[in-house]
Amino acid sequence: MSTEIAETVAAPRKTRGPWAVALVRLTTNKAAMAALGVFLLIVVACLCAPLYAQWAGVNPFQSTLDAVIHIGGVEVPVMEQSTEGLGLGYTPLGPTWELGNYFLGADIQGRDVFARMLYGGLNSLVISGAATILTLVLGTSAGLVAGYFGGLTDTLLSRILDILWAFPIYLLAISLSIVLIAQGITIGPITIQSGSLWLPIFIIGIVYVPYVARPIRGQVLALRRSEFVLAAISLGVPGHRILWRDIVPNITTTLIVFVPLMMALNMLTESALSFLSIGVQPPDASWGTIILDGQALLYTRPLVAIAPGIAIALSVMTLNVFGDGLRDALDPRSKIQFGRDA
Amino acid sequence: MKKLLLAASAAMLLAFGWASSASAEYLQEHRGGTMRLLARSAAGTLDPHINYTLQYWQIFQPLYDGLVAFKKANGKEGFNKVPDIAEAIPEPTNDGKTFVFKIRKGIHFSNGQELGVKDVVASFQRIFKVSGPTSESFYGGIVGADKCTAEPKTCTLEGGVVGDEAAGTVTINIVKPDAEFLDKLAMPHAVILPADAPTEDAGSNAIPGTGAYMISAYDPNKGMTLERNPHFKQWSEDAQPDGYPDVIQYDFGLTEEAAVTAIQKGQADWMYDQPPTDRLVELGTKYMDQVHISPLTAWWYAPLNTNLAPFDNEKARQAVAYAVDRNTLVNLFGGKVLAAPVCQVLPPDFPGHVDYCPFTKDPGTKWTAPDLDKAKALVEESGTKGQKVTVIVEDTAVSRSIGVYLQSVLTSIGYEADVKPISPNLQFTYIQNTNNKVQMSVSQWYQDYPAASNFLHILFGCDSFREGSDASVNISGFCDKAIDAKMKQALDLGVTDQEAANKLWSEIDKEVTDKAPAVALFTPKHIDFVSKRVGNFQFNAQFYWIVSQSWVK
How far apart are CA A49 and CA A60, in angstroms? Predict the structure, then answer.
C-alpha cells in the first residue's frame, strides 16, 4: 500500500499548459466554434471576390447601364425603362438567384450586386482588421506606458485618452472623416491619399484607442504593484525588460480577447461611415456603401440594401459570439468589460 | 383692316370678360379648405430680401409684392413682367438710366399699415442693410449702391432711389442702362416691406407683406402656416391674385419616400422635393393623373477647372465632352420623360438658344451618341493621359450615380479618376473655392430670371470668378477676354435691341460651348406629385407651381 502511494507521488500526472486548456475550452464551446465557422466562410467567400467577378464576367466598379443578360435563354436588360403609363423611371434587374448571373440583381448603376457584396465584404474585413491592429498597437502602447511609468506620464496620457473618450465615437469619426476625406492626410513622411482605404483604417483605428488603452492601463497598474514585478525592480532589471518579459505576457490574453470584439465594433463603424459617404469612396465598395446605394432602391429592389445589412449583422454577431467564447476560454474568471463602462 | 380690328377687339373683350367671370365663379365655388404641403426640411430664413432658395421663393409669391412681378400664369407666360405695386411698368428715360414708378394706393400690409412711398424707398435701402446675397450682383447698378455695399448700415441710396410722397412716385436711377433691371426688380429680393422692418436678418420671424396670404406660424423644425391676409384686396390678378385655399399648411420633416406615401393616402396635397427614383414607376403608372411633369429652364453640368491640370488644356476638356453619354445620364436621372440630353449652355426654348452640338458622334444641332474614339485621340493629343482627376459631387442618390458614371468615363478615356461625394450643404460652396483645387464637379443651375446672361455671363463671365472665395459661381474659372467683351456688348445691346442681343448671346453660347469649360449633361424636367383633391394645377415657368391658384375643394 505504501509502495503504491510512493509510486503515485513519484510519477505526477502530466498537466496541460494554460494555452492548451484554453484551446480545449474553446473547441468544446459549440456556439463559439459555429460562429468561427460561419465567419471563416464569409472571409473565404470575400477573398474569392476577384475570382467570382472574373468567372461571372462582370466589372463591379464600372457603370453598365446598357448591359443585357440572358435568363433562361431570354435577353433581359440590366436596367429596365418603364414603358407603361407616363413611362417614368428605370428599374434595375432583380435577383436572378443564378450564381454568376446577377445573383442578387443589379444596383442603380447596373452593376452586379453580389459581386459588389463580395468586394465590399473584402474591404469591410480589411478595414476592420487593420483598424483593429492599429487600435491594439496604439492602445496597448499607451496603456503599458501610462500604467507602468505612472506619475506625469500617466497623467498626461490619461488626460489625452479622456479627451478622446469625451467625444461621442461616431461624432469624432464623422468629424475626422469630413476633414480628411477631401484632402487626405500627411503625417511626416507618410501621406494617405483621400481615396485610400488607409484613411478609414486610420480614423477608426484612432477613435477606439481609449477602449483598449484604459483596461490595459488598469491591468498594468495592478501588475506594477505585484510582488514579482517589485522584486524585478528591486533587483535592478531595466523597465523595458520588465515590461516586455513580465507585464506583456500577463496582458496577452486580454489582447487576444479584444481582437474579435474590436473587429466587430470596427466593422460596424466602417459600415456607418461608408453609409454616410465618409468611409470607403465610390466606385470602391463596402457593405456600408452598398446599403447607401440600396437606399435609393428600397421600394423596388429592397434586397440591394438588405443583403449587405444581413452580411454585416452576421459578421458582427459571429465575431461577438466567438469573442465571448474566446474570453471564456482564456480567462473564465475575467471581469474585464468591453466598451465605455470598462 | 379697321373692321377686322374691331372684331378682334370685341372678341378679346368677350374672352377677357368670360375669363374673369369664370375665374370669379371658380373662386367662389372652390374657395376654402387647407392645402397641405410637405418638404423634407425648412429652407432657412424667412427674410425675403435674404433667402435665396427656390423652395421659399415659391412660397413668397402669395406673400410679397415688388414694384413689378412675373405674371402668375401658367407656363412660359409666367416669364412676362407685369406691374405689381407700381401702377404701370415705366418706360426708362435718361438714356435708359431712370425709371419712375407710380405707386398704387390702397395696398395694405398684413399688419394693417398702408403701403407708401417711404416703404418702397426703405425696402431698397434694406436690401443693402441686410447685405442681401444679390445686393451687389442684381442691384449694384443703382446709383449710390457702391456706398451702400461699403457701409451697409448707413445705406441711403442717395440719388439712386428717390421718393416723392406728394406725387406718389419712386424714381430709381441706375449707373448705366441695364436691359435686365426690371427682371431683377421682379425677384423676391426686391419685394416691398414695411419701412420699419428690422434692418437685420429676420430669421424665423415673418415680415408683414402685401400678398393674399401671411405667415401666421413658423417653426423651422416643424412647419409653416399661411393664412389669408385680412387686409388684402386684389388689385391685379396677373401680379397678385386672390387664392383658393383658406389655409396653406407647410410641414417639414418627412422623407421623400414618406411624403409620396402621404400624398398617395390623401394625407398631404403636394411635396416640394422630387419623388425618389424608386417610386417613379409606381407614380407613372398608378397615379398618372396626379403627376405633372413640367420643363425647366435649367441644366445639369460638369464644370471643368480651366486653371488646373488636366483641364487647363482645351483638348482635354473637349475629350470629356465627347466621351460623356448623355443618354446614360438621362437614364440615371429618371429617363427620357424627365430629362433631355444637351451639349450647350443655354437651355432649350430660352432667350438666345439656337440648337448646337459640337461634341457628339455626328456634330450638328442635336446630341446623338458619344464619340469615344475622338475623345481618346484628344486625350492623347493633349498629353494629359494618365493624370489624376477627382470628381466632386453632392452626396445625393442622383448626383452620386452621375459622379460614379463620370468616373467610369474618365477612366475609359485614359485618366486615373475617382469620385468624392460631399454633403449637399457644402458641395456648392466647396467646388466654387479655388483653394480646394477642384478639377471637376457636378452642379446644376436654375435660372434666376429668363435672360441668356443669367447662364452665360453669370457662369462663365470673368466678373463671376473670384479666387479663394466661396462665392465664385464661375466654377470653371473660365475667363476668355474676347468672349467676356462680347458678353458685355450683348448686355449693352439688350437695352436697345433685345432681339439683336439674343442673336449675339447665341453666338456667345456657341463660343463658350466650343471652349468646353463645362460638360453640358442634360436639362431636367420637374415632377409635381399632388393629391387627388388638388384642382387647377398651374406651373409657372418662373416660380413653378402657383400654390394659391390650386384648390382643394
Answer: 10
Give the model's pLDDT for residue B6: 40
How close B480 gets to chain A, by Cα (Å)?
30
**Three-state secondary structure readout of B112-148:** CCECCHHHHHHHHHHHHHCCCCCCCCCCCCECCHHHH
Chain A contact set for B390 (CB, 8 A):
194-195
- Using the Cβ of B203 and the Cβ atoms of chain A, whether some distance falls under 8 Å is answered with no
Cell triple for B422: 460631399
User: Which residues in chain B (334-353) have CB-CB distances under 8 A to chain A?
Assistant: 334-338
Cα B187 to Cα B208: distance, rounded to the nearest angstrom = 17
Residues 6+ apart with CB under 8 A from B82: B68, B69, B70, B71, B89, B236, B238, B239
Nearest chain B residue to A276 by CA distance is B395
Which residue from A minimizes the CA distance to B334? Answer: A89
Pair A208, A266: CB distance under 8 Å: yes
- Report the pLDDT value the prediction gives residue B433, as an integer from 0 to 100: 92
Enumerate the residues of chain B whose CB falls inside 8 A of the CB of residue A109.
332, 401, 404-405
d(CA B460, CA B277): 32
Mutate to test the interface with A, among B264, B278, B294, B390 (most CBs of A within 10 A): B278
Q: Which residues of A touch B (CB under 8 A)?
A: 62-63, 65-66, 79, 81-82, 84-91, 108-109, 178, 181-182, 194-195, 277, 281-283, 295-301
Name which of B214, B271, B284 is nearest B534 in CA terms: B271
Intervals of chain B under pLDDT 50: 1-18
Burial degree of A80 (CB within 10 A; 0-12, 13-18, 19+)? middle
Q: For position B3, what pLDDT does the model report?
A: 40
Q: How many CB atoms lie within 10 A of CB A97?
A: 10
- All cell numbers assigned to B473: 459661381
Q: Grid coordinates standing for B59?
A: 412660397
- Are B281 and A89 an interchain contact pair (Cβ–Cβ within 8 Å)? yes
CA distance B384 to chain A (A): 21
Nearest of B280, B298, B295, B293 to residue B334 by alpha carbon: B280
Run of H or E residues at A314: helix A303-330
Orientation of helix A248-275 relative to helix A169-183, angle to 10°: 70
β-pair partners for B81: B70
For chains A and B, count residue pairs whose Cβ atoms are closer than 8 Å.
120
d(CA B45, CA B53): 10
B positions 511-540 inside 8 Å of A (CB):
527
Cβ atoms of residues B537 and B304 within 8 Å: no
Q: Which residues of chain A have pLDDT under 70?
A: 1-14, 182, 332-342
Read off φ and ψ for residue A35, nearest 5 degrees: -65, -45
Interatomic CA distance for residues A131 and A179, integer angstroms: 19
The three-point CA angle B500-B501-B503 to 5° equals: 65
In Å, how far is B45's CA from the nearest CA of chain A? 26
Question: Is residue B483 within 8 Å of B491, Cβ to Cβ?
Answer: no
Q: Write the residue in B276, B288, B392 that is nearest to A86 by C-beta.
A: B288
Residue with the three cell numbers 432667350: B351
Determine, for residues A86 and B422 on separate chains, whether the beta-carbon distance falls below 8 Å.
no
Q: pLDDT value at position A180? A: 77
Contact at CB, A89 and B422, closer than 8 angstroms:
no
Q: In angstroms, rounded to a whole number, what is the distance separating the alpha carbons of residues A258 and A262?
A: 6
Strand partners, B103: B86
> Contact at 8 Å (CB) between A305 and A291?
yes
Burial B465-478 (b: 16+ CB within 10 A, else e): beeeeeebbbbbbb
Interchain CB distance below 8 Å, A82 and B280: yes
pLDDT at A12: 60
**What's the CA gap between A95 and A117, in Å, rounded?**
13
